[in-house]
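Q: What changes when flavin mononucleotide is included in the input?
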Amino acid sequence: MPEPVPLFLAPMAGVTDVAYRLLAKEAGADYTATEFTAASGLSRKDAKSWAKVETHPREDPFIPQIFGGVEDEMVETARLLSKDADVVDLNFGCPAPKVTKTCAGAAMMGEPDNLVRMVERCLEASQVPVSVKMRLGTNQETLTVLEIAERCAELGVLRVCVHGRTLSQKYRGVADWDMIAKVVEVCEPYNTPVIANGDVIDAKSAAKCLEVTGAQGLMIGRGAIGNPCIFGRIKTELGWEEFEAPWGDANQAGQKHWAWNRYVELVDEIGGPYAARNMKQHAISFTKGLPGGRELRPHLHAIKDFRLIGEPLNIALEAFSQRRHNTLIVPEAIEAAATASQAGGWRR
Ligand SMILES: Cc1cc2nc3c(=O)[nH]c(=O)nc-3n(C[C@H](O)[C@H](O)[C@H](O)COP(=O)(O)O)c2cc1C
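A: The predicted holo structure follows.
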């Protein structure tokens, strides 16, 4: 069994809102980060951008993630955020064309000198440590990750997270853990921890990824969507710690039921105009992989006021996890969804 390492919830746009981050921590994650947020908006004090990096007094550590292709904007944003953040994370991994066309995100992997200068200036401007998240390079012909990771480590970044794919791969193919192992090697002389990311979906793949990469931490993205209990399960299954699961000895469906209700509670507790913004997407994600999920989803989609989506899903998950039904298609849940869908929409 591999030695215990910290587990990170990957930053994910539309997923890692503050309630989901608090939930993931309760479910066993050690670190979480906000979704990536444009330095162009933050440095201009745009309210919607600042809503994306909202935090909560209980969030510890608070790690906002930023991206941008304009050095001065990134530096100013790192300076501003570092007043409240524990760590500022810089994104050099996003493959979305709307990001890369401004030479931001993973496109920066094609410009090592610019990227390194940006990191150096952000480190100078920030009052708190700075971490970086990157891909392997822009494509298989230009794998710049070893040079860039080593130079960032030399500059003194807190940690280097590597998603084992190139920009042109987007999310296709298989994450290259062997390449992450090489990043671990080049960062070792600087004592800079490397966090391996890509294709970890359960305890087995977590153990394998650690064996191959020798990384000092693991980051999980898609495997944690609609499935935040993955962190506690990995820790328990790998015998890392006596993780006191807040879901008791519930089966996987019961874990989802616990997690969904806890998410709804956290959204209520956090309140404010943005807390519930990803509620519908999360509800849909929680039904994935469960029998009857496909059939239940249209009923959830029909609910316009997404704050009302909590109850129908709660009823379905409860009945399913208690084995009163062997699918999520539970008549009471469909009825509750129909009632909720009568309500008008809710706009922020
Ligand atoms: C819906 C979605 C949104 C994402 N948004 C971000 C983001 O805001 N910042 C970031 O660094 N990576 C983002 N990513 C990439 C993930 O953080 C992660 O690097 C990638 O999904 C690979 O890990 P996985 O195989 O565990 O999913 C996103 C991925 C997904 C699926």
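Observations recorded in class: Residues 252-342 form one domain.
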